[in-house]
Design a protein that fits this description.
alpha+beta, five-stranded antiparallel β-sheet, three-stranded antiparallel β-sheet
């Protein structure tokens, strides 16, 4: 019966690994109406360890241009990412943990107005 317990133990470890990946949470702005003069602020929640290693980037798809993302890390379990798109068009926000996209990443959003 110890073999079954060992297997069960492995299963438990495997499932906790999966939930670790998905513990980072942020609002989905994919369907939001965003104006070109609007500044986007996204609260990102997760464990201190994950957020410390999270990298966030933004690209204007139509112009193939990197848009700066500033990240306030003063709260270890909730980051505040700020993006100022400046132009209309399609954007992608990427949230990477050890070079892998987290749940909901990459997230596309549309900014109204001229490109």
């Amino acid at each position: 019966s110890s073999g079954i317990n060992a297997e069960y133990g492995l299963l438990t470890i495997a499932s906790s690994e999966e939930t670790k990946e998905a513990s980072i949470r942020f609002p989905d702005i994919g369907n939001a109406t965003i104006g070109s003069n609007q500044i986007i602020q996204l609260p990102i929640q997760g464990s201190e360890e994950e957020l410390k290693n999270l990298t966030i980037s933004c690209i204007h798809i139509d112009l193939d241009r990197v848009v700066p993302v500033s990240v306030d890390r003063s709260n270890p379990v909730q980051l505040l990412a700020t993006v100022n798109p400046g132009n209309g068009g399609n954007y992608t926000l990427s949230f990477l943990l050890e070079d892998k996209h987290v749940y909901q990443s990459p997230m596309k959003f549309l900014v109204e107005g001229e490109i």
